[in-house]
């Protein structure tokens, strides 16, 4: 259902508030760059520090700006199942095409708890849903066997697999077959994951290089594996640079250097250190981004 280059869009701020003008401009930058779908209010969108009103404002603004040109997939996950259901319902009412639901963080639920959480959200809101497994952020790993239990639920359509493990992604693919799509959650392994059967990537790097990431996934789907492989290797350095500090600090700093939006982040995130900013700028110059 969702495939190709899907951007995990940043949320631009200006003096502590959401910068809606820049948000709209970023949407246009993505669409003109060939991005296949847009995810507002994910990890990269700093959803954890947006209040309810801001969260919905960002989602509604993206939906309005996109105008059905590409799918919009709203981040609606929470460590409270009731809150995840509420956010997902509100996003549905705002007109999104799907929702991305991170595993509950901090609670550290068992696999049974994770299964019941996702089952409850799927049964509570009739909209396509993408599971989001990022144990480095949440402290819990959604295991392949649990994904296989969830895969038969009709509106659970995909998983963003962000363990960084090709083995785990391969186990999900082997266990679930065609019941659920797998999307890479890490730019630096998009190509090998697609070679294993993934349908694309929910990308951080696409924020600054939408065309390159779209070209990689497009080349793969066109059967031009050599071009896709070359783009995989060519983008490796910038992909790694997006994680020299906690995401989304590097990508927001990069967008700031490009003049696309402010590099402002919300506490407890802090601005990038001067030394790392210098390293990032040098890499961006190599890619002719600045």
Structure, described:
It is a single chain. This protein has 13 helices and 10 strands. The radius of gyration is 18 Å and the shape is globular. 47% of the residues lie in helices and 13% in strands. α3 links the parallel β5 and β6. The protein has 290 residues and is α/β, with parallel strands linked by helices. It starts with a strand and ends with a helix.
Write the layout of secondary structure elements.
Elements: E1 4-8, E2 13-14, E3 17-18, H1 20-32, E4 37-39, H2 52-66, E5 73-75, H3 81-94, E6 98-102, H4 111-124, E7 129-133, H5 135-138, H6 144-150, E8 156-161, H7 166-176, E9 181-184, H8 190-196, E10 200-203, H9 210-221, H10 225-234, H11 236-241, H12 249-258, H13 274-286
Parallel strand pairs: 1-4, 1-10, 5-6, 6-7, 7-8, 8-9, 9-10
Antiparallel strand pairs: 2-3
Tell me briefly what this model is.
The chain has 13 helices and ten strands.
CATH topology: TIM Barrel
What is the CATH architecture descriptor?
Alpha-Beta Barrel
Number of strands: 10
Q: What is the spatial order of strands in the main beta sheet? A: 4-1-10-9-8-7-6-5
What would you give as the CATH superfamily?
Aldolase class I
Alpha-carbon distance between the two ends: 35 Å
Q: Structural class, please?
A: alpha/beta
Our count of helices gives: 13
Q: What count of domains describes the coordinates?
A: 1
Reading off the top of the CATH hierarchy, the class is best stated as Alpha Beta
**Average pLDDT, all residues:** 97
């Amino acid at each position: 259902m969702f495939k190709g280059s899907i951007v995990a869009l940043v949320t631009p701020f200006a003096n502590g508030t959401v910068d809606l003008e820049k948000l709209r401009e970023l949407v246009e930058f993505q669409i003109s760059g060939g991005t296949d779908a847009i995810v507002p209010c994910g990890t990269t969108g700093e959803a954890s520090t947006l209040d309810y009103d801001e969260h919905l404002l960002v989602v509604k603004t993206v939906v309005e700006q996109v105008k059905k040109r590409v799918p919009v997939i709203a981040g609606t996950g929470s460590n409270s199942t009731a809150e995840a259901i509420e956010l997902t319902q509100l996003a549905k009412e705002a007109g999104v095409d799907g929702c991305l639901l991170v595993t509950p963080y901090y609670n550290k639920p068992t696999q049974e708890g994770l299964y019941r959480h996702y089952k409850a959200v799927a049964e509570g809101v009739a909209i396509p849903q993408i599971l989001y497994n990022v144990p480095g952020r949440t402290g819990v790993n959604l295991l392949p066997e649990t994904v296989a239990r969830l895969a038969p639920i009709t509106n659970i359509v995909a998983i963003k697999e962000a363990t960084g493990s090709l083995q785990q992604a391969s186990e999900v693919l082997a266990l679930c077959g065609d019941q659920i799509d797998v999307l890479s959650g890490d730019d630096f392994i998009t190509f090998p994951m697609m070679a294993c059967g993934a349908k694309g990537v929910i990308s951080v790097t696409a924020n600054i290089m939408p065309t390159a990431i779209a070209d990689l996934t497009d080349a793969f789907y066109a059967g031009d594996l050599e071009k896709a492989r070359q783009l995989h290797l060519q983008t490796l350095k910038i992909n790694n640079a997006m994680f020299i500090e906690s995401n989304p600090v590097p990508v927001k700093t990069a967008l700031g250097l490009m003049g696309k939006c402010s590099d402002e982040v919300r506490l407890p995130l802090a601005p990038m250190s001067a030394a790392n900013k210098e390293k990032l700028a040098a890499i961006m110059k190599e890619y002719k981004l600045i």
